[in-house]
Design a protein that fits this description.
Blueprint (H helix, E strand, L loop, with lengths): L1 H23 L5 H19 L1 H10 L5 H51 L1
Amino acid sequence: MIAVQLISIVFSLAAMFFTYTHYKRSDFTAKELLIWTGIWIVFLVISLFPEMVSPYVQKLGFARLMDFVAMIAFVVVFILLLHNYLVVHQLENKIEALVRELALKDVDSEKKKKTD
């Protein structure tokens, strides 16, 4: 169990570092920085003190903390997958509208050239 805890601790600290560097490069807003840092701090606390969370996990019907963490990870991955799908779909619609607008401008400019 100690090896898993050490890996989790190193991972959460590295994730906090990368989150901060992305914030400094203006990839994240302050709100996003707080959300992601909060997630990594919770992960770090659970990694350091798994016995603190175990009673709650067992009340939820999970045999081990790792089962609970895996279930939460699946839920988060699917939420992010859905969010990414929606963002890409919105971007596709915006690009399609922009291409149509540019194509119509090109047609109009060609008509003006022919009439001149």
